[in-house]
Write a structure and sequence with these properties.
The strands form 2 sheets. Strands 4-3-2-5-6-9-7 form a 7-stranded mixed β-sheet, with helices on both faces. Strands 1-8 form a two-stranded antiparallel ribbon. Helix 3 links the parallel strand 2 and strand 3. By secondary structure, it is α/β, with parallel strands linked by helices. 40% of the residues lie in helices and 19% in strands. The chain has 2 domains: 201 residues, Vaccinia Virus protein VP39 (Rossmann fold, 3-Layer(aba) Sandwich), CATH 3.40.50; 67 residues, Helicase, Ruva Protein, domain 3 (Orthogonal Bundle), CATH 1.10.8.100. It is built from 12 helices and 9 strands. Bound molecules: S-adenosylmethionine. S-adenosylmethionine (SAM) binds next to strand 1, helix 3 and strand 3.
Length: 285
């Protein structure tokens, strides 16, 4: 049974180890038992899994993950958390804590250490680097089965939405190319200490074995997508001709759109993932 059950137990641990929540590391500690349990349940963590947790903090989620998973690797940037994690996880032999910046960590090497288990990422993410963490995981080529993370509610909405919404963008398309997103639950600020200034949501991304659309040049498609949303109020023609990463002449864009049966004056924000793939193939061809 987890020792960090109840807000009081987590606060006591934090106090005894003189931990101060550092804003620069996005530290908002989750102290609501029902939310912690819901994250583990939503991720379907079982003994066949190797769970990578990003940012364990004082360890309330880590402890629960270790009770259900075959193995847990927890990556924490802040050294002040390590003694608290050692206290909470000391008697568990299926957890490894690494004190490092996740963005500079070789995740492939971590995955290879436990080769015979399903790889899952579970985390209450530091919000200041949500996008680089999530896109980095998705684009890594490492076979994660799922990624279950707490993110800002607004970011969860961006991951799940399609054309026609103001939230639709490069992140939506990257997430939906690699995975099927599902928002699990919204979480109020009171579930954390200190309270974040924004709403939070848990989202699970189930990674595809094969993307839902096929495209001849994945890297080009994502460069086109990024260029389209960098100037999202412009027509696709104008956005792509001016962008130094793609520089596609307006006539070429217009011809490709016509071949697709789309309006040559369309904006990139109106295209679906399937249309971006088709457009990329026509440009490449
Ligand atoms: N898991 C804990 C919880 O649920 O209470 C803490 C979550 S807190 C929102 C985010 C955690 O990520 C903090 O512990 C913070 O120090 C850690 N963190 C921030 N930036 C990081 C980075 N670049 N690499 C690894 N961990 C990081």
């Amino acid at each position: 049974m987890a020792r960090l059950r109840s807000k009081g137990a987590t606060m006591d641990l934090v106090r005894r180890h003189n931990i101060t929540a550092r804003k620069k590391f996005g530290q908002n500690f989750l102290t609501d038992d029902s939310v912690l349990d819901k994250i583990v349940e939503a991720a379907g963590v079982c003994d066949k899994d190797h769970v990578i947790e990003i940012g364990p903090g004082p360890g309330a989620l880590t402890e629960r993950l270790a009770e259900h998973a075959g193995f847990v690797t927890a990556i924490e940037i802040d050294p002040q958390m390590i003694p608290a994690l050692e206290e909470i996880l000391g008697d568990k032999d299926n957890v490894r804590v690494i004190c490092a910046d996740v963005l500079k960590t070789d995740m492939g090497a971590i995955a290879e250490k436990i080769p015979d288990k399903d790889l899952k990422v579970v985390a209450n993410l530091p919000y200041y680097i949500t996008t680089p963490i999530v896109t980095g995981l998705l684009e890594s080529g490492i076979r994660y089965k799922s990624i279950t993370v707490m993110v800002q509610t607004e970011v969860a909405a961006r991951m799940q939405t399609g054309p026609g919404s103001k939230d639709y963008g490069a992140l939506s398309l990257a997430v939906q190319y690699y995975s099927k997103p599902e928002i699990v639950t919204d979480v109020p600020p009171e579930a954390f200490i200190p309270r974040p200034g924004v709403g939070s949501s848990v989202i699970r991304l189930d990674l595809y074995d094969k993307p839902p659309v096929s495209v001849s040049d994945e890297a080009l498609m994502f460069r086109i997508i990024k260029a389209s949303f960098m100037q999202r109020r412009k027509t696709l023609q104008n956005a792509l001709k001016n962008n130094p990463d793609v520089r596609i002449p307006a006539e070429k864009t217009s011809a490709a759109l016509q071949q697709m049966g789309a309006d040559p004056m369309i904006r990139g924000e109106a295209l679906t993932l399937e249309q971006f793939a088709q457009f990329t193939d026509l440009i490449k061809g």
